[in-house]
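Thread: quick sanity check before group meeting

JM: Hey all, I'm pulling together slides for Thursday and realized we never actually wrote out the predicted structure for the chain we discussed last week. Dropping the sequence here so it's in one place. If anyone has concerns about the input, flag it before I start.
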Amino acid sequence: MVTAMTDADLITRYGGRLPRYTSYPTAPHFHEGVGAGEYAAWLAALPPDAEISLYLHVPFCDRLCLYCGCHTSVARQERPKRAYARALAREIGLVAEALGRRAPVSQVHWGGGTPTALPDGCLAGLMDIIHARFAVAADAEIAIELDPAALPPAKLAALAEIGLTRASLGVQDFDETVQKAIGRMQSFEETRAAAEGLRRLGVGSLNLDLIYGLPYQTEESVARTARLALELAPDRAAVFGYAHVPWMKKHQALLPEAALPEAPQRLRQEAAIRAVLEREGGMVPVGLDHYALPGDPMTQAVKAGALQRGFQGYTTDRAPVLIGLGASAIGTMPQGYVQNQPGIPAYEASIAQGRLPVARGLELSGEDRLRRAVIERIMCDLAVDLPAMASAFGARPEALLVGAAQLRGFLADGLVEWDGARLSITPRGRPFMRNVAALFDAYLDRPSTQPRHAHAV
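JM (edit): ok, ran it. Output follows.
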């Protein structure tokens, strides 16, 4: 029997701190026992035909938004940016040498920070090196994250040189009061000019990032932002809840904390955005926080049960290898995870010494692989067949669940359905998807090397 719980009751019960599950085990459990030597061996052991995705992290912005949780900083001078670009170029070479061949690449993703913060010629020059050292597929997806307010015509034109196919524009919120509070002034006209400019370049897929849970936001204001976003004709939208972690990101302490919405308000804001995107924009919900048009490849991947989730969020990329390049970048290998030095000086020092700049990582056990597969299907499909999944890994399904008591609570509260084999998340339970995934997280209560996670809702 389903209990009559209000949203506030559910949040009180389930609103603790949880991972976003862009990996399993999650990054706080990486350790220094995995370093450059292990990474080099893992690269050398990859099958010759293994497809690879590349992620290049640019830790610079033209402005520092107060809500930001990324590894980035504001650098006014050109010299450190060019030095960083040279280090990136050398790291590309080090990885290619460890691979020992021009490995096939199916996707290149530029993230940050703001990649266009690099000086003129850097993006194109690095892309030329990638083409020289890797066999980039003719139909490879070349994606980039952009700040519309830092995209003058010259920067926009430079993007044509890297073969861009997909772009993600940071919108966050169009309300001026909210923008002032978060230190990110950005007009709708600027954003529209950026979107139209990207379309003129031939960019076929446009994503917009929206955030709820920011200071001074209301249900009405986030709905207005969502409607304005739809005027830009996006193919996809990502709707993130602001993660307030000032103990990790000191600049977040500058936000007016008293103006941050409480958890029930956050939940209603998310619902308001969702209603606009689905009912007025015709978008289809994808996983926890993404939306896409019905004909989009991401929507098709959902229907086919082929949606993936990684450190860049939801993706259609099926490559078994993600190589992270740049300071703080994380890579995913069949053998495990590696993360580069987070600080630019340490990163550049490693590169200067001819070493892969790995700071820490984690080698996957057989149990890790099974639990990773279960959690990924929950986060992507909102359902998982536990006996079938366990059988595929030669394991017993009854050993998977680490939160049996919590599962009984989820059933009573109508968040999940369970027939003894298939576990599925109900529409009511969708905002609590990470709580359901945590039922299978054997690491959650272990000590970690990093501060804990943001609130689940």
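AS: nice. The radius of gyration is 22 Å. The first helix runs from residue 7 to 14.
JM: adding both to the slides.
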